[in-house]
Design brief:
Length: about 240
């Protein structure tokens, strides 16, 4: 069965697919592709027109030799050009394109953003009907465990996410004033360093919502008191997405 993960930007759709399939994964960034990247380049032998083997199909067959299961991962499927989406629909429906077939042990998984978060027009109703669509929401406990293991210096951040003081997904503001707290921006904030243009604190405030940013670098007594109030308010609350 084909699966499609729908979720806001930065919630870890790509990361979860990569963790599941590992070396058996072939990722196709659909938003950057042309029709020839999916269908192959045309050439002629006499009066007969052929298409070259697409790179991703060759990679899948190479990986299928050493993996019990391989996965074609169609990332940013919602942003496909119309001609690319049409060609992909043929591939998904028949599991072949022109004269080239997918390996028998190949799964097809896609990821996309919802329309209100930058989703495009690449997912038609016929395309939708060929996937089981999963609304992907990150698990704060699993993310916190991963964060604490990978970044021991950020244990307080992991604990705050685990306890609900930092939401796993939050967004405030509009346009270029918008700030988002999500797995992607939290990791970027953990790795933030000072640079010539901005201090670490400035960079974190440019990444995260104010509530989340206050846990990283409370600089003044006022900010520290605000952080204590947030912690106290969240104590005992049930974590909700």
């Amino acid at each position: 069965m084909n699966l499609m993960l729908i979720g806001m930007p930065g919630v870890g759709k790509t990361a979860i697919i990569e963790s599941i399939y590992g070396d058996g994964l072939v990722k196709v960034l659909v938003s950057t592709m042309l029709e020839e990247d999916i269908g192959g380049l045309p050439y002629r032998e006499g009066h007969i027109e052929h298409r070259t083997q697409p790179k991703f199909i060759r990679e899948l067959h190479d990986k299928a030799k050493n993996n019990a299961q391989v996965c074609l991962f169609l990332d940013e499927l919602d942003k496909a050009r119309q001609e690319v989406a049409d060609t992909l629909l043929t591939l998904i429906q028949s599991r072949k394109i022109n004269e080239w077939e997918l390996p028998k042990n190949c799964k097809i998984v896609a990821a996309a953003n919802p329309p209100e978060f930058g989703g495009g027009n690449g997912i038609s109703e016929p395309m939708q009907s060929r996937f089981s669509i999963i609304n992907w929401v990150p698990d704060p406990i699993k993310w916190a465990d991963w964060c604490a293991a990978k970044y021991p210096q950020a244990k307080d951040i992991a604990d705050a996410v685990r306890g609900g003081q930092i939401p796993i997904y939050d967004r405030v503001g509009y346009g270029l004033d918008a700030r988002t707290t999500c797995p992607r921006t939290l990791e970027m904030a953990i790795l933030a360093e000072d640079c010539d243009l901005a201090s670490r604190l400035e960079k974190i405030k440019g990444l995260l919502t104010p509530q989340a940013a206050s846990f990283f670098a409370p600089q003044s007594s006022t900010e520290k008191r605000a952080r204590d109030v947030i912690v106290a308010k969240k104590q005992g609350e049930v974590l909700r997405f």
